[in-house]
Amino acid sequence: MEATLVKCPHCGKTNRVPASAAGRPRCGSCRGGLPWIVDAGDADFGTVAEESPVPVLVDFWAAWCGPCRMVSPVLDKLARERAGEIKLVKVDVDKSPGLSRRFDVQAIPTLMVLVDGKVTARQAGAAPAEVLRHWLDGALSGTRR
Predict the structure, then answer these.
(1) Cβ distance 97 to 105 under 8 Å?
(2) What angle is formed at CA 48 by the lines to CA 42 and CA 49, rounded to 5 degrees?
(3) Has 11 been annotated as catalytic?
(4) CA torsion, ordered 7, 12, 16, 18, to nearest 10 deg
(5) 68 is catalytic
(6) What is the mean pLDDT of residues 73-86?
(7) Which residues contact 14 (CB under 8 A, 6 or more apart)?
(8) pTM
């Protein structure tokens, strides 16, 4: 699990954000919430996603999948809009066949919302940005902490 460098959407400073942490990522300068976008695989999914202190949006994708490449920037934008509120975890199905089997991923992209390590919402297939936004808002509506 590596840390990624993230530019703060509030003040523009660059911050190191770990793949997993006990709290929510915040800017070291302005203390604003930071987008939390990480990759996970078979070996670290439990730590990165299931033990997350915030709700997790999981994106099961593959590099060769056209619809996945269309949805990815939308998911990144949703994660940036909800900085400090959610964590976006991207799982490459070709590199993580165990997770694909475990969550019975039959089509990609497949999106799931995890709260406290449990699947609370699931969607298969690509959808327009507004549909994904509405779906995510509905999935998170009962999880505001």
Answers:
(1) no
(2) 90
(3) no
(4) -50
(5) yes
(6) 93
(7) 5, 6, 7, 8
(8) 0.92
**pLDDT tens-digit map of 115-144:** 999 999 999 999 999 999 999 999 998 654
pLDDT in tens, 36-79: 999 999 999 999 999 999 999 999 999 999 999 999 999 999 99
Taking the C-alpha atoms of residue 63 and residue 36, their distance in angstroms, rounded to an integer, is: 21
Output helix, strand, coil percentages for the chain, rounded to the nearest 5: 30, 25, 45
Q: Which amino acid is at 74?
A: V
What are the backbone dihedrals phi and psi of residue 32, each rounded to the nearest 5 degrees, phi first? -70, 155
* 77, 32 Cβ separation under 8 angstroms: no
Q: Do you know the residue count of the chain?
A: 145
Map tokens 């990522």 to a residue. Answer: 25
61 phi/psi in degrees, rounded to 5: -145, 175
Closest Cα to residue 35, out of 64, 5, 70? 5
49 secondary structure, DSSP code: I
